[in-house]
Amino acid sequence: QVQLVESGGGLVQPGGSLRLSCAASGTIFSIYTMGWYRQAPGKQRELVAVITSGGKTNYADSVKGRFTISRDNAKNTVYLQMNSLKPEDTAVYYCNAAVGSDYVPYFRSWGQGTQVTVSS
Questions:
Q1: 113 dihedral zone (left: phi>0; alpha: psi -120 to 50; beta)
Q2: Cα angle vertex 92, ends 114, 50, to 5°?
Q3: Pairing state of beta strands 91-99 and 18-25?
Q4: Which candidate among 68, 72, 98, 101 keeps its CA 20 to 30 Å from the CA of 46?
Q5: Closest CA to 32 of 104, 110, 98
Q6: pLDDT at residue number 1
Q7: Splitting the chain (120 residues) into consecutive groups of 10 residues, what average pLDDT does each group show?
Q8: Cβ neighbours of 112 (radius 10 Å)
Q9: What is the pLDDT, as a whole number, of residue 27?
């Protein structure tokens, strides 16, 4: 079955950077549009970035210009480079396939996510 494992989160000061990784197994990774999602305390999960199988990207307005999504199909891995981090970026970050024009999460089982905390 499909497994998604997120890593790379941590505690960082405002203005700092982190690079998240999502390793997928049990699926043909290269055919999927992949997305990064986040869920902050008391808020709903939101999609922050996507990358298609061909490398086309799209971002939520809140992270545009600060975050960069990329993928390495040979490693079945998608990355999220986060720069100029703000306290409002604090959340648990998850990855999943994001399908269709509405980028609906596809894989039934989510990973455990990785915690990003931006605080001084």
A1: left
A2: 90
A3: unpaired
A4: 72
A5: 98
A6: 87
A7: 96 98 92 97 96 96 98 96 98 96 93 97
A8: 11
A9: 85
Other C-beta atoms lying within 10 Å of the C-beta of residue 17: 11
94 in Cβ contact with 24 (< 8 Å) = no
Q: Which amino acid, one-letter code, is at 70?
A: S
CB 33 within 8 A of CB 100: no
Strand order in the sheet with 18-25: 3-7, 18-25, 77-82, 67-72
The β-bridge partners of 105 are: 98
**Tokens found for residue 81:** 């480079």
> What DSSP assignment string belongs to 29-93?
GGGS-EEEEEE-TTS--EEEEEE-TT--EEE-TTTTTTEEEEEEGGGTEEEEEE-S--GGG-EEE
Token pair belonging to 46: 């939101």
Provide φ and ψ at 73, rounded to 5°: -65, -30
At 13 the three-state DSSP class reads coil
